[in-house]
Amino acid sequence: LFVKSRGDRTTRLSLMLTQARRRVVVRLTGGCGKMSPEDAEGFYGIFSEAFAGFDGALLFGGTRMLQRDDLTMVVPGITEIPTAIRTSCPDMITLGVVPRTEDLGLADYGMIVSREEGNPYVTIVHPQQDIALLVQVSADDAEAWDAEYQECLRITEDLREYAGFTSILVCYNGGSVTERELLATAQRGWPVILVDGSGRKTQEYASNVAFLQAHPNVRVCDRNAQS
């Protein structure tokens, strides 16, 4: 677990990712607590089959959501994909980025990142990742959730520019933060995959013909492993 404040460099983390056998960094973004059960149905299996044998680097939001009324139950979300595909991808290296949006808490079930009233879940640092990076403004000041994708953009840029990596952003479902990351990546000209049929913001842009024509680096795939 690494901790950095805004303005700090993450050179050591980038170097750790260069140990991946395949010089490709995949960034996963999309739905978490607001993803519907219908949109989440079967998507672990789709990703497991599609990524079988992947041995590159994987960036994701390094958190896990637990049901508030039953802390033994994991809430489905994009941040569970690395765990779901680990068996079929034993040689990949995972790095989870966690914004410190409020004071951290300690509990028997993990390090608490967020416990907002009104949410039916509690968010903790994901216990199953190779490397975790906690980002904050400073020791006294918290960050916004956007810091996750902003840090992932910086890490991806370093890997592309200095380590000869290629990259791809995979979007599944998601809301306004996913939208901002999607647009920021598309504008850089980096490859993006939108999963058609995954719902919410990803679905919106997957159906936006004008956007896709303006950004040939953005491709749409069907909601199945083969596509």
Quick structural overview:
The protein has 227 residues and is of the alpha/beta class. Helices cover 29% and strands 30% of the residues. The protein has an 8-stranded parallel beta sheet, with helices on one face. Strands 5-4-9-8-7 form a 5-stranded antiparallel beta sheet, with no helix packed on it.
Shape descriptor:
globular
Q: Taking all residues together, what is the mean pLDDT?
A: 94
- SSE ordering: EHEHHEEEHEEEEEHEHEHHE
What is the number of beta strands? 13
State which percent range the strand residues make up.
25-35%
Extract low-pLDDT stretches.
Answer: none
Task: Characterize the biggest β-sheet.
Answer: 8 strands, parallel
Number of helices: 8
Backbone structural class: alpha/beta
- What strand line-up does the widest sheet have? 1-10-6-3-2-11-12-13
Name a few traits of the molecule.
five-stranded antiparallel beta sheet; globular; alpha/beta; single chain; eight-stranded parallel beta sheet; 227 residues
Describe the structure in your own words:
The chain has 227 residues and is an alpha/beta fold. It contains eight helices and 13 strands. It has helices at residues 11-17, 37-40, 43-50, 81-85, 146-162, 176-187, 200-206, 209-214, and strands spanning 2-5, 24-30, 57-61, 63-67, 70-74, 93-99, 105-107, 110-114, 121-125, 131-136, 166-172, 192-195, 218-221. The protein has an eight-stranded parallel sheet, with helices on one face. A hairpin with a 2-residue loop joins strand 7 (105-107) and strand 8. Helix 1 (11-17) packs across helix 5 (146-162) and helix 5 runs parallel beside helix 6 (176-187). It starts with a strand and ends in a 6-residue tail after the last strand. The model has no long low-confidence stretch (mean pLDDT 94).
